[in-house]
Amino acid sequence: MEDRKFDDLTRFIGRRASRRAVVKGAAAAALAAVFGRAAGGDADVAEAAVPQQGGVKQRVKGFCNAAGQLCKNSINPTKRCCYRCAGTGKNAKCCEAEGYACTQDSHCCDGRICRDPNLFDGVNLKGCFNSGSLNYGGQCTSSSDCNGLDCVGAGICCTPEQICEGGSTCCAPDEGCVEDSCCPVENICDVNPYDGTAAQCCDPYSEVCTADGCCAYENLCGDECCDPYTEYCDGYLGYCVSNT
Scanning 5, 29, 82, 240, which has its CA 20 to 30 A from the CA of 199? Predict the structure, then answer.
């Protein structure tokens, strides 16, 4: 082979090898970022996480033994727990780390509880959390699950000002407790919160908030609310006038 052709072939092979190395390196880095094993931790730690939803992190399914599954997988013995094995022996099961998805308390390591951290966000995903760490909106079975709050209604950690209906309901962040019922904030009519007059919850389809409180649209006269039995609206004057 001529020296020139040999040199060209050598450079070609070198370029191909370099490109493969770059591709392999990039792939390895990406995999390590998603599935990298934690160093210096428990023997059965195998991180495989995706971005969190509703305050709960999730694992990539199928790449490791999930919480509640046996630590040793007879079908694929090389698979390890996504986080940690909760015991020893052939029947030992995997448990999950704080903040990661679960379906029951027994799936959580170190005695943590399995709760939805925010029942108001619509995500409906439970995670492992320390007892007593759940804030407003967190799922609870008793007040000991909450961070200094009461567990009310169907099991929600609730701030005092959002507790309603005799303590049986926790109003959502966009609601307020009015007349012992949860009312959307935009429908609350509190003309003077300092005069002791109770706030009202207006019907968004038939009422408007006035200086007199919630007023039916048909009784509205300018800025006033006419009494339908004793007053009428003088359209020319723009205020309510007595029938007598």
Answer: 240
pLDDT digits (tens, 9 = 90+) for 122-179: 999 999 999 999 999 999 999 999 999 999 988 999 999 999 988 889 999 999 999 8
Domain count, the chain: 1
225: containing domain? 174-242
**Structure-model confidence comparison of residues 228 and 23, the more confident one:** 228
Is 191 a domain residue?
yes
Burial environment of residue 242 by CB neighbours within 10 A (0 to 12, 13 to 18, 19 or more): exposed
Neighbours of 138 (CB within 10 A): 24
Cα distance between residue 56 and residue 139, in whole Å: 13
- Does a structural domain hold residue 220? yes
DSSP 120-163: TSS----EEE-TT-B-TT-B-SSGGGBSSSEEETTTEEE-GGGE
Cα(62)–Cα(68) distance, integer angstroms: 14
In a domain, 185, yes or no: yes
User: What contacts 190, CB < 8 A, 6 or more positions away?
Assistant: 197, 199, 200
- C-alpha distances out from residue 196 to 163, 179, 193, 200, 213, Å: 20, 13, 7, 12, 13
Burial of 139 (0-12, 13-18, 19+ CB in 10 A): buried
| H/E element, 215 | strand 213-216
Backbone dihedral region for residue 89 (phi beyond 0: left; psi -120 to 50: alpha; all else: beta): left
Do residues 241 and 230 make contact, with C-beta atoms less than 8 angstroms apart?
no
pTM of the model: 0.68
The structure tokens listed for 54 are 């509703």
